[in-house]
Amino acid sequence: MKALEGIKVLDFTHVQSGPTCTQILAWFGADVIKVERPGVGDATRKQLVDKPGADSLYFTMLNHNKRSIELDSKNETGKRVLTRLIEECDVLVENFAPGALDRMGFSWERIQEINPGIIMASIKGFGPGKYQDCKVYENVAQCAGGSASTTGFLDGPPLVTGAQIGDSGTGLHLCLGIVTALFQREKSGRGQRVSAAMQDGVLNLCRVKLRDQQRLEAGPLREYSQFGEGIPFDDAVPRAGNDSGGGQPGRILKCKGWETDNNAYTYFIIQAAVWEKVCDVIGEPDWKTREGFATPPERLDKLNQIFERIEQWTMTKDKFEVMDICNPLNIPVGPILSMKEIAEDEGLYATGTLVRVPHPERGEYISVGCPIKLSDSEVKVERSPLLGEHTRQILTDVLGFSGGELDDVIASGAVGEVK
Ligand code: COA
């Protein structure tokens, strides 16, 4: 048995944010029915195509374990089928541009009328307010949510991060909202509306930077490298390079091979508790007691000197040797792993964090499996559906169409089937 077995999800999502959410629901056992425009489908099917004619990795990696129905939701018969789907489903998830669902004739009020028990979950770029009508993609959310202004180096421009905190991050937030609403429905018997704005999701993940914004009022942020370097703060949280958000001085340092390998680096943190061990490892035992080095506040204006010395040591080891030496001493370090190294790590396949998925058009590809492991609800990653692969199955098994009625729906042109 799976945790969400018996829950039917009408998946009106596209691109990345919404599909991330519904993929997790599918992995937890929900029956996720992805509604796609006939002949077109989710735009990502044909974005960043690496194998002509096959669904892209962008699509396949975000739509595992779902079923696909091709349905024109603007056509009258299509609207009738959609109404039936809303009647049957427990959850509707969408991330259309603001107003798109209303324009189709399916406002929240109308959806509640059709099924008062339904949970309707939406992702938009912004919450209610001056930007509520904007279309938003990942990097816009990173910029508007405070991430870009606080990422990068002090002397460089704002930076976006490769982690898709706007899209996938908000999808995860929405997913939590949906399962919480399902839990509440057990007691209330009612559905409800769940909304997650991408700006809010990013800001939630940048919480520590808003903490620092307020701390600035009490004086400079002493744990930022900038402080030790004597560079004054202005009135907004600065970009902090690779400083750690928790206040423990940390840097990314070169390791053996950095001249030719872009990822021959390690993250190195000098927590107060392990300072003495760090001094021993790098060959500076007298720093343990030397004035100006012995306590964390004294070290703040010498971080450049200290990390340069540590780097002289890390450059004599490869990033894995640094880990092998430091880990037993509880000195926190992290090798900078390339995606190539991650994709080749068999340990990640053993835990299901990475999976190899067979696909009829693509052959086998690698994907990230479910990152959340439930001991009593095992996840088996199944390939993403082809466009309209389950149209007939959904019309018959879920909606109960048969005989002439089924023929009429198919003949109406409101639905499509896999070619
Ligand atoms: N049948 C008929 N029409 C359909 C359909 C179907 N099955 N599925 C979608 N459509 C229509 C929509 O009704 C809409 O039509 P309308 O504009 O005439 O009302 C149209 O297709 C396109 O929808 P839209 O959401 O505007 O797509 P877009 O490609 O222009 O914009 C986003 C994409 C992501 C920018 C936008 O959807 C958005 O801002 N979403 C919310 C934030 C978000 O999730 N962003 C991140 C995505 S990873």
What key attributes describe this structure?
7-stranded mixed sheet; 12 strands; 419 residues; 2 domains; elongated; Rossmann fold; 3-stranded antiparallel sheet; formyl-coa transferase, domain 3; alpha/beta; binds coenzyme A; 35% helix
Polypeptide structure, described:
35% of the residues lie in helices and 13% in strands. Helix 1 packs across helix 7 (167-188) and helix 6 (138-144) crosses helix 8. It has 2 domains: 8-205 and 343-411, Crotonobetainyl-coa:carnitine coa-transferase, domain 1 (Rossmann fold, 3-Layer(aba) Sandwich); 241-331, formyl-coa transferase, domain 3, CATH 3.30.1540. The longest helix is centred in the middle third of the chain and has 22 residues, at 167-188. The relative contact order is 0.14. It has 419 residues and is α/β, with parallel strands linked by helices. The chain is elongated, with a radius of gyration of 26 Å. The chain binds coenzyme A.
CATH superfamily annotation of the largest domain: Crotonobetainyl-coa:carnitine coa-transferase, domain 1
SSE string, helix = H, strand = E? EHEHEHEHHEHHEHHHEEHHHHEHHEEHHE
Structural class: alpha/beta
Q: What is the count of DSSP helices, taking H or I runs of 4+ residues?
A: 18
Tell me about the largest β-sheet: 7 strands, mixed
- Which outline best applies? elongated
What is the number of independent domains?
2
User: What Rg do the Cα atoms give?
Assistant: 26 Å
Q: Which CATH top level class of the largest domain fits?
A: Alpha Beta
Number of strands: 12
Residue runs with pLDDT of under 50 for 5 or more positions: none
**What is the name of the CATH architecture of the largest domain?**
3-Layer(aba) Sandwich
CATH topology descriptor of the largest domain: Rossmann fold
What gap, in angstroms, lies between the N and C termini? 33 Å
Mean pLDDT: 96
Beta-strand content bin: 5-15%
What ions, cofactors and ligands are bound?
A: coenzyme A
Estimate percent helicity: 25-40%
